[in-house]
Amino acid sequence: MTKLRLAIVGAGPAGIYAADILLKAERKFDVSIDLFEQLPAPYGLVRYGVAPDHPRIKGIITALREVLDRGDIRLFGNVRFGQDITLDDLKHHYNAVIFATGAIRDSDLDIPGIDAIGSYGAADFVSWFDGHPDVPREWPLDAESVAVIGNGNVALDIARMLAKHAEDLLPTEIPDNVHAGLAGSAVTDVHVFGRRGPAQVKFTPLELRELGELRDVDMVVYDEDFDYDEASKDAIASNKQVMVIDRVLQAWRKRDSVNNGGGAASRRLHLHFYAKPLEVGKDADGRVSTFRWERTRPDGEGGVVGTGEIRELPIQAIYRAVGYFGSPLDGVPFDERHGVIPNHEGQALHPDSNERVSGVYATGWIKRGPVGLIGHTKSDAMETVRHLINDQGSWWQPADSSEGAIPALLAERGVRWTDLEGWHRLDEHELALGVPQERVRVKVVPRDEMIAISRGE
Predict the structure, then answer these.
(1) Which residues are within 8 A (CB) of 93 and not within 5 positions of it... i.e. 6 or more apart?
(2) Is the pLDDT confidence value at 200 over 80?
(3) Residue 281 above 80 pLDDT?
(4) Per-residue pLDDT, 332
(5) pLDDT confidence of 53, banded at 50, 70, 90?
(6) Which of 46, 71, 169, 274 could lock 296 by a disulfide, CB 3.0 to 4.6 Å apart?
């Protein structure tokens, strides 16, 4: 029977789902899968890209863990592609590779002043509050008034984490350094800006509702944003999700103490719609001082046009949450414009000729960009796996496909890789750290400490 030795780079949901789907698929060959992850722990953005106060979403980890714990997938953590292991190495030891490296950089917001001191990308802030091992331990939180640009779930995560009181995060797995940082935050007002109206937002009803549940935080909305055009009214009438979002916002409008100003709470979270970013103002020291935007209006078709009315708000920090972007991989074709591996249904393509790149596949956000939820990731993986199975004739022919070759190679290069047993050690250690404080867990943040615990050192 034909043997398929497959490498998957990226141990987040996309990579783990691809492995699971392939192992369960009907096939005429034996499959052996090695999963490579640059971090010492698996699960990718579910561990390092979801706010700590989202336990429902983090429940996905339970399903991912069940896949890994079956024992038919090997995990090599703390292995950097392009540094510890290369594409040539993979060709030497495997029949094919699926890249599931996601999108972890911030998309650019090309407006004057966006490079000011106090201007941040959402992805960097998320990495900090999720205890990513490769970002600084401290985060500047000296701003009283903050702007968040974007109308997706990430923008609301950023706004919620900035507005929420630090002690209300203690029941979660928030790292100690993050709790300490947020406890010292000077923030009083968080302003979220979106280009379009309330009926065109990209966030979900669940994310919006959670904002209204924050303790000692007033939700502030503005009457001028709710003069709906026909396209918005149609969207509310025809789309249940939009209808629920509108219902939540309308309920907030009826709170007299909150609407258009704010009530008695010590912090306020403002939602501004119909706002096109124009410029970030700087003070004499190059720090963020103001945010300027143009008021927009509906164009009757679900979009917006500018009105020429310019507004300005004094702020001391700004976060851009306008999307994530993929990163290029050594030796692998990359679409610089869209931040993905150019591909046809997961089959990598040469960008110039559109010809197939044999043996190279993609799934998840590095395949289609940072859109969609976990359900999309599963269907994504199914499509990629289907092509991989059908492409048997164009697989690589490895010189050494023995399962002992990779551990020997990594050992020879001095790579301190972590495995599944090591992840269990780290997981148990973090859970144990949480027990004395009656917390879910306390994340270990330093990479060296994660590796030492994982390797039993």
Answers:
(1) 5, 7, 398, 399, 400, 401, 405, 406, 409
(2) yes
(3) yes
(4) 95
(5) confident
(6) 274
Residue from 346, 351, 324, 323 nearest 335 by CA: 351
Q: Are 335 and 327 within 8 A, CB to CB?
A: no
**Could you tell me which residue, 29 or 89, shows the higher pLDDT?**
89
- DSSP bridge pairs for 268: 189, 218
Alpha-carbon gap, residue 209 to 226, rounded angstroms: 18
Report the pLDDT value the prediction gives residue 365, as an integer from 0 to 100: 92
Q: Are 267 and 162 in contact (CB under 8 A)?
A: no
Residue 320 phi/psi, 5° resolution?
-95, 120
Residue linked to tokens 């700004």: 318
Q: Average pLDDT for residues 20-37, to the nearest whole number? A: 88
Classify residue 126 by burial, with Cβ atoms within 10 Å: 0-12, 13-18, 19+.
buried
Q: What is the mean pLDDT of residues 319-339?
A: 91
**pTM across the whole model:** 0.91
User: Tokens for 202?
Assistant: 């990209």
Nearest to 367 by CA among 123, 13, 27, 6: 13
State phi, psi for 205 to the nearest 5 degrees: -55, -40
* Average pLDDT score over residue span 113-142: 95
Angle at 68 between CA 10 and CA 332, to 5 degrees: 20
pLDDT per residue as tens digits for the range 284-300: 999 999 999 999 999 88
Helix, strand, coil tally for the chain in percent (to 5): 35, 25, 40
Q: Are 395 and 95 in contact (CB under 8 A)?
A: yes
For residue 382 the two structure tokens come to 């199914």
Distance (Å, whole) CA 402 – CA 405:
6
Structural contact between residues 151 and 319, judged by C-beta atoms closer than 8 angstroms: no
Q: Which residues contact 159 (CB under 8 A, 6 or more apart)?
A: 148, 190, 192, 211, 269
Q: What domains are defined for the chain?
A: 2-104+326-417 (3.40.50.720), 106-320 (3.50.50.60)
The partner residues of 149 in beta bridges, in order of sequence, read 193, 320
Contacts of 11 (CB under 8 A, 6+ apart): 35, 36, 37, 39, 42, 43, 44, 75, 77, 100
Percent share of the chain, pLDDT over 70: 96
User: How far apart (Å, rounded) are the C-alpha atoms in residues 293 and 111?
Assistant: 10
